[in-house]
């Protein structure tokens, strides 16, 4: 499967949130999800979380979804297969209700999913949506950490252990339950504890300890010579603890947030702007504000700049190659300037038609392709108006929207 690497920066809108509140009851998932399918499940939940119980269905741009999970942006067949697997996989919960009565339930992870016109639409059953959104009992699935995992077993182990970090231990799990949580139940090979320990437990523990914000130590209980139960001692990983930052604190530690507050933007408005726009876009408008003198109300000016996408006019790239002289040369230069201006205008139109989340993914996908450090720096300063990257920008958008520059 072809994959593209997405830089590990924060995302925007609902997808900026770095942690998914994942109800512990819904973590007990049957079926054998691959690493990418497990990541897909978490990203879909993150995208839908704010409206889980207020909206019956949710949407996300299919290409953005592919890039976030690690698929090739045009690999719709793999995305379809993964969505099919989530719809065929069940989540089971067994917990006490508000009156202390035992409640058991089962539901497919997704009640339906469909792809149409480049949009992925999906839904959860009402019962599962209620459990996923329950703020009383949840585990934090940190997407910054999730992206670091390369093994589905390791991510599954992390998901099932992290919710016990405050108690320091998972408690004893029967080996059969552990096989189910790891997605290896039904395999004759893993009926042997020797194989289960060598191929699943040890590699998964090593990756969790190396990759995540917790450290695990497995312990085993035997009946005679046979291992019957397993538990994991858990403590925080001091070297990676900074990855576990809640939403508001993560935003407040950013340079863009501090620059907004410094010019008089309130905490709430600063976080709202960063949530609605990507940080690069807000930084660009702050840079634009810094270049203006005599601004009486920076907050009001920034509000207009963000809404109107204020920017300095792009500077034309000097033409060094020899060409026609006199009037012919002037006409050729004029034609080139007009062509470049038309291309940049078309790019801005394409960008304007994308949602904040899509714009963020577009930028990250483009930057991942830029190898030259100087070109990356120019793009960081000027965004899609980067003169140094114009050819690459046009090629990128032509790939994203075939025929977009026809007639330009």
What do we call the CATH topology of the largest domain?
Answer: Arc Repressor Mutant, subunit A
Q: Helix segment count? A: 18
Stretches with pLDDT under 50, minimum 5 residues: 1-10, 242-248
How far apart, in Å, are the first and last alpha carbons?
A: 35 Å
Rg of Cα set: 25 Å
**CATH class category label of the largest domain:** Mainly Alpha
Could you name the CATH homologous superfamily of the largest domain?
A: Winged helix-like DNA-binding domain superfamily/Winged helix DNA-binding domain
State the helicity in percent bands: 40-55%
Q: Structural class, please?
A: alpha+beta
Q: Report on the biggest sheet.
A: 3 strands, antiparallel
Strand order of the largest sheet: 2-6-5
Instruction: Average the pLDDT over all residues and give the rounded result.
Output: 79
Shape: elongated
Q: How would you spell out the order of helices and strands?
A: EHHEHHEEEEHEHHEHHEEHHHHHHHHH
Q: Layout of SSEs?
A:
Elements (H helix, E strand, L loop, with lengths): L18 E5 H4 L7 H14 L9 E4 H8 L6 H13 L1 E7 L5 E7 L3 E5 L2 E5 L2 H8 L4 E5 H4 L5 H11 L10 E2 H7 L11 H19 L2 E10 L2 E11 L10 H6 L2 H8 L4 H10 L2 H12 L7 H11 L17 H27 L3 H14 L3 H10 L7 H11 L8
Helix pairs in contact: 2-4, 3-16, 7-9, 11-12, 13-14, 15-18
């Amino acid at each position: 499967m072809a994959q593209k690497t997405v830089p590990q920066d924060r995302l925007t809108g609902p997808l900026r949130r770095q942690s998914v509140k994942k109800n512990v009851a819904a973590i007990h998932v049957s079926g054998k999800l691959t690493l990418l399918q497990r990541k897909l499940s978490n990203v879909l939940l993150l995208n839908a979380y704010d409206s889980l119980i207020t909206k019956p269905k949710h949407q996300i741009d299919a290409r953005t979804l592919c890039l976030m999970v690690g698929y090739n942006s045009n690999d719709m067949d793999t995305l379809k297969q993964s969505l099919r697997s989530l719809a065929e996989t069940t989540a089971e919960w067994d917990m006490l209700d508000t009156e202390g009565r035992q409640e058991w339930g089962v539901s497919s992870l997704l009640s339906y999913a469909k792809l149409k016109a480049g949009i992925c639409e999906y839904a959860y059953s009402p019962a599962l949506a209620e459990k996923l959104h329950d703020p009383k009992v949840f585990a934090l699935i940190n997407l910054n950490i999730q992206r670091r995992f390369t093994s589905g077993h390791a991510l599954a182990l992390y998901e099932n252990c992290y919710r016990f970090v405050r108690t320091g231990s998972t408690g004893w799990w029967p080996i059969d339950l552990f096989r189910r949580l790891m997605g290896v139940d039904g395999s004759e090979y893993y009926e042997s504890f020797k194989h289960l320990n060598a191929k699943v437990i040890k590699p998964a523990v090593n990756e969790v300890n190396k990759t995540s914000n917790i450290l695990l130590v497995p312990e085993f209980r035997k009946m005679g010579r046979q291992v019957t139960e397993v538990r994991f001692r858990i403590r925080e990983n001091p070297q990676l603890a900074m990855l576990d930052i809640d939403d508001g604190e993560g935003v407040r530690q950013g340079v863009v947030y501090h620059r907004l507050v410094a010019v008089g933007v309130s905490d709430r408005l600063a976080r709202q702007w960063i949530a609605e726009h990507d940080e690069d876009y807000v930084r660009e408008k702050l840079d634009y504000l810094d270049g203006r003198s005599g601004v009486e109300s920076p907050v009001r000016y920034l509000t207009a700049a963000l809404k109107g996408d204020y920017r300095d006019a792009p500077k034309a790239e000097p033409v060094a190659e020899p060409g026609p002289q006199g009037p012919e040369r002037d006409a050729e230069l004029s034609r080139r300037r007009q062509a470049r201006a038309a291309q940049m205008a078309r790019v801005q139109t394409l960008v304007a038609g994308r949602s904040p989340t899509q714009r963020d993914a577009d930028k990250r996908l483009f930057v991942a392709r830029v190898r030259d450090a100087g070109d990356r720096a120019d793009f960081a300063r000027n965004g899609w108006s980067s003169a140094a990257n114009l050819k690459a920008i046009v090629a990128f958008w032509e790939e994203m929207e075939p025929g977009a520059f026809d007639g330009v």
